[in-house]
Amino acid sequence: MALNTLEQLIQSISRLPGLGKKSATRIAYALLAGDQGDAQRLATLIHTLHDTIRRCSVCGSYTETDPCPICTDSGRDRATICVVEQPQDVASLEASHEYHGLYHVLGGVIAPIDGIGPDDLAIRPLVDRAQQDGIDEVIIATNPTVEGDTTALFVARQLEAIGVNVSRLALGLPVGGDLEYADRLTLARSFRGRTPLA
Amino acid sequence: MALNTLEQLIQSISRLPGLGKKSATRIAYALLAGDQGDAQRLATLIHTLHDTIRRCSVCGSYTETDPCPICTDSGRDRATICVVEQPQDVASLEASHEYHGLYHVLGGVIAPIDGIGPDDLAIRPLVDRAQQDGIDEVIIATNPTVEGDTTALFVARQLEAIGVNVSRLALGLPVGGDLEYADRLTLARSFRGRTPLA
Question: Does the beta-carbon distance from A6 to B53 stay under 8 Å?
Fold first, then answer.
């Protein structure tokens, strides 16, 4: 049976992450009941997305200009690179306003089960950058998962071989968290990484 | 500061119902990382939505043809009308495959606090339809809320005045529900509406 427009839209929306059939239906009806101009503005943004936004040829994060504003910003610390898995991680870290160096997006993690090896990630370009641009420190910010940890170790070995200092984001209790709800591994890490009180 | 395309998209998506900044960000990045063709198909569906889908001039539900397929279906029971608040309620009720009559969308409920009175809803057209089309029964399927109940009562009075039988969807325990988690009012209603076991 041919799907009508509304069913097609609901199906298309429900393929987006975090949305099931119910929420997709709710969104489709809201678009329909809402202002036509608003819907069309959203449509135009989605339609032109891939043409407007590309990957930065230096760091691999999303950008409208190549190289990206971070890579060309002379006000940033150009001797430090923070290594992340995905382009969206750059935005999360930038929101902390704590880091002022450069970034490097690996494009994933080493995951042999999914057939992703070191050569499928931007590890070689990272080592080249570190070597050519005189990088002092590389901070690895892969996710604290088995794959993220494995990837961090692998990347660290490559960088230490060329004499670059490598560090990893601290693991411990999240700010505002509750000991009662913290998992065993996080608690163990927060003991091991305890810091002296000033 | 001028927002870049990605920020505009995230802002636009986060205005949709049920989506906050975090889920909007996740969706925007998924659109970006996904297939360009998929994104553009979604964009086209959203862009043409208001031009493709209109309200049925008979029942008020959303349709691509006017009158809608339900209103023109000669196989349906044309002596029964089910009255709902919103166009999306028609799709929910159709999914039950239990009802084979016609529909009528009120377009909301009587809510004096929000300044919505009976004249703001399609109540007069419903009474006209019931009178002109020789309707036997009207089933009121407004939501079981204070406003829904008030509206149901108001509509019922208008229809009883012209000799139409009026009923209301049964209230009681949801199928698969648990007595332990049912609220007091629902339990009270399920006692009052108890049915004899065959």
Answer: yes
The yes-or-no verdict on residue B2 having pLDDT over 80 is: no
- Could you say which of B6, B32, B43 has the minimum Cβ distance to residue A47? B43
Q: Give the ipTM of the model, two decimals please.
A: 0.80
* Domains of chain B: residue spans and CATH: 7-52 (1.10.8.420), 77-168 (3.40.1360.10)
Contact B168, B140 (CB under 8 A): yes
pLDDT digits 0-9 by tens, B147-162: 999 999 999 999 999 9
Q: Taking CB atoms and an 8 Å cutoff, what residues of chain A touch B44?
A: 43, 47
Nearest to B7 by CA among A88, A37, A56: A88
Give the gap in angstroms from C-alpha A5 to the nearest C-alpha of chain B.
7
Q: How many CB pairs under 8 A join A and B?
A: 119
Q: What is the DSSP letter of A131?
A: H
Tell me which H or E stretch contains B21. Answer: helix B21-33
List, for residues B92-120, the tens digit of each pLDDT value: 999 889 999 999 999 999 999 999 999 99
Measured at the alpha carbon of residue B31, what is the angle toward residues B30 and B36, in degrees to the nearest 5? 135
How would you classify residue A115: left for phi > 0, otherwise alpha for psi between -120 and 50, otherwise beta? Answer: left
Q: Per-residue pLDDT for A68 more than 90?
A: yes
DSSP string of A45-64?
HHHHHHHH-EE-TTT--EES
Query: What does the pLDDT read at residue B191?
Result: 87
SS3 A39: helix
Query: Is B6 within 8 Å of B32 (Cβ atoms)?
Result: yes
CB A11 within 8 A of CB A18: no
For residue B87, the chain A residues in CB contact (below 8 A) are 29, 32-33
